[in-house]
Amino acid sequence: MRIARFSLDGNVAFGVVEGDANTEGGPVLDIIKGHPFADFERSGQKLPMDKVRMLPPVLPNKVLAVGRNYAEHAKELGNEVPEEPVVFFKPSTSVCGPGDAVTYPSFSSELHHEAELAVVIGRMCKEVPRERVRDVVLGYTCANDLTARDVQRTEQQWSRSKGFDGSCPLGPWVETELDPADLGLMCTVNGEQRQLGRTSEMIRSVEDLVVHISEAMTLLPGDVILTGTPAGVGPLNVGDEVAVTIEGIGTLTNKVVKRD
Ligand code: MG
């Protein structure tokens, strides 16, 4: 099931996506009564997707992200694969949605894309045993861990370089029935392929990461874990359209714009 979050005339709701671009009339959203973090009913009231504004599929309390989780990517930036996962936060204010414009950060001149599989947590959990990881995950979406690479090099903590407003595009929806073990993921810039990988190349799997992170902290419904990026990261310029596509999920597209 694909669950999207959207707004129409100032009202925000979740909806189940039915159909796709090949469906006559395009995809529609069957509005959900309530929210997707508990048992819910579909209302049967359907809206064409092109009539609504798509929003980030969840509003996370926190976004955790994992650095250097693909060996080829660690190597391309001159880093070793770490013994323990490198885990960092992106603030809730970094999240933006599918189609949103991302403002090129004023304090950087080297903005990079990082296509990543995002895990969306479905229920409050702590110290999740490996065999229960599936039960606490609502589903998966696409993410772009946008990074001010020059600032990342000069500041010890990555709070500014990876936490600026708009640095965490998520979407277009959460796919709830998906095995994340071996999915193709790709990043294109203005239609040109930049990154290509498979989640099977991840050094730590989704299970590893949920176990590792929940050892330390409570995860809440809607929290998001970014699982790292494959090789091929590179610069974005004002005016570029960057797209993250993950097999079985869809495509998350954002445009880079100049600060007003
Ligand atoms: Mg990353």
Integer average pLDDT: 96
Task: Please outline the major beta sheet.
Answer: 12 strands, mixed
Order of helices and strands: EEEEEEHEEEEEHEEHEEEHEEEE
Number of domains: 2
Helical stretch tally: 4
Over all CA atoms, what is the radius of gyration? Answer: 18 Å
Fold and architecture overview:
The chain contains four helices and 20 strands. Strand 19 (241-246) and strand 20 form a beta hairpin. The longest helix has 11 residues, at 206-216. The termini are far apart. The chain has helices at residues 71-76, 133-136, 149-154, 206-216; strands spanning 2-8, 11-18, 28-33, 41-48, 53-55, 63-67, 86-90, 95-96, 101-103, 111-113, 115-121, 137-144, 147-148, 168-175, 184-189, 192-198, 224-226, 234-235, 241-246, 250-257. Strands 1, 2, 3, 4, 5, 6, 7, 8, 11, 12, 14 and 17 form a twelve-stranded mixed beta sheet that branches. Strands 9-20-19-15-16 form a five-stranded mixed beta sheet, with no helix packed on it. By secondary structure, the chain is mainly beta. 10% of the residues lie in helices and 41% in strands. The chain has two domains: 2-54, SH3 type barrels; 63-257, Fumarylacetoacetate hydrolase, domain 2. Bound molecules: magnesium ion. Magnesium ion is lined by residues 65, 67, 114, 116, 145, 226, 228-229.
